[in-house]
Write a structure and sequence with these properties.
By secondary structure, the protein is an all-alpha fold. The chain has helices at about 1-10, 25-30, 35-55, 55-60, 80-90, 95-100, 105-115, 135-145, 150-155, 170-185, 190-195, 200-215.
Length: about 220
């Protein structure tokens, strides 16, 4: 249901509803542009500025920061981003800081922020001070195959559309997300993750998070 909401919100991204909270310059410019592409470019420019002002302090100007527990947005997909913003706006995800920010967002804001996030290219994680443990990485790779993580997230762990890019995501964030899906504390935009993890032993979750965080795509 929520995924369908995300698709609907993205599909209407070219039209800004009356009263949508956009910048005055964007609203004025969008009224005189000649094409939908021009309008979309203006909206993206406006939300790039808003991302810089609202989001970058925690998530980083390029979508990757070193703040613990804060997910990497660089390389993330618009559809996934908009469904997460929707869940946060509706108070269905338990994250007080993000709920406080998202609760006042209009549908146009959800489209604008997620659209801009979708333009951020992937940013590799900084090189760790110590190389990842080879044995643990092999175990994690085997678990990702065994539990069919790669069926949805892909062999490169880069996801697509409503499936998030997880390769190179922060270990603490992935670990918390996996445990949250497993216990039901974190709702998904579909039941896919909760159903998939229902078959995964709790003891495998930390190893999967370690593997995902240290994964380097080819």
């Amino acid at each position: 249901m929520v995924a369908a909401v995300g698709m609907t919100l993205l599909a209407s991204s070219a039209a800004l509803p009356t009263g949508a909270q956009t910048t005055k310059d964007t609203a004025a410019s969008a009224a005189v542009v000649a094409s939908p592409a021009d309008a979309a470019a203006l909206v993206n420019e406006a939300y790039a500025e808003r991302f810089s002002n609202v989001c970058a302090a925690c998530h980083g100007a390029n979508g990757r920061s070193d703040m613990a527990g804060t997910p990497v947005l660089a390389g993330q997909h618009s559809l996934y981003a908009i469904t997460q913003l929707f869940l946060l706006r509706e108070g269905r995800r338990n994250n007080a800081a993000m709920v406080a920010i998202a609760k006042s967002m209009t549908d146009a804001d959800l489209r604008g922020y997620s659209g801009f996030i979708g333009t951020l290219p992937p940013v590799p994680a900084p090189a760790p001070p110590v190389a990842p443990e080879e044995a643990r990485m092999k175990t994690g790779q085997a678990l990702a195959q065994q539990h069919k993580c790669v069926f949805c997230h892909g062999s490169a762990l880069d996801g697509g559309q409503g499936v998030p890019r997880i390769g190179g995501q922060k270990e603490d964030y992935v670990r918390a997300a996996l445990h949250g899906y497993k216990t039901g504390d974190r709702p998904g935009y579909t039941r896919a993750m909760s159903e998939a993890l229902s078959q995964v032993p709790v003891g495998d979750l930390d190893t999967l998070a370690y593997y995902v965080a240290n994964f380097i795509g080819k």
